[in-house]
């Protein structure tokens, strides 16, 4: 995670960003700290990246890379305003040890457009494209990670990253908003995950799919009340955290958390 010490909305690169509404920086930092504390209280180790001046979106640390079993596929951002974030994330993996970092040739935005399900079909990667990540990055990620990559086309600008439209609930189950995807991608998802928890547009617009799950606890923002009911009905325990300020930049819980998947020992 990376604290929102320099978080502002000073440019517009997604439909949720509004430069005319000021961000409450103190409130953003307070809400971020609440999320960090929640994850720690649930038993997770949280590594914190230093925030860097001039990178207001660095708080959305999920976009910086994508790791699977100790291999890290680096990010290459679509927009120049965020390009230097990739360098900061690479520095973390280079110094943390036990990671094999591979720099990308193609544009991709890390876990923003990649999700991993280690127990589904022997371990598969779901990958989004249509707004940020180039489809060529999917093939590149497959070569780097050695896992099958399933390409899914996003068609609604409001859900510009995969992690705004789909989330892993555990190692083999997902939840998603069907209409965020093309008809063909909807058919693929229905075939792969017939028991998925289906979200509606209200859930997605509340950033209810921008969640983090450890397989039991599902951490999601406080606005996603109905989504909380759905994951509870599916057997998970919802944990709500207020991230109203971070939503001003087009992200919520998942955007703020890069999940680390070290090599299996």
TrEMBL record:
Species of provenance: Actinoplanes cyaneus
GO terms of molecular function: arginine deiminase activity
Protein name: Amidinotransferase
Stored PANTHER family: ARGININE DEIMINASE (PTHR47271)
Taxonomic lineage of the native organism: Bacteria, Bacillati, Actinomycetota, Actinomycetes, Micromonosporales
Coiled coil: none
Domain of life: Bacteria
Entry's Gene Ontology BP terms: L-arginine deiminase pathway
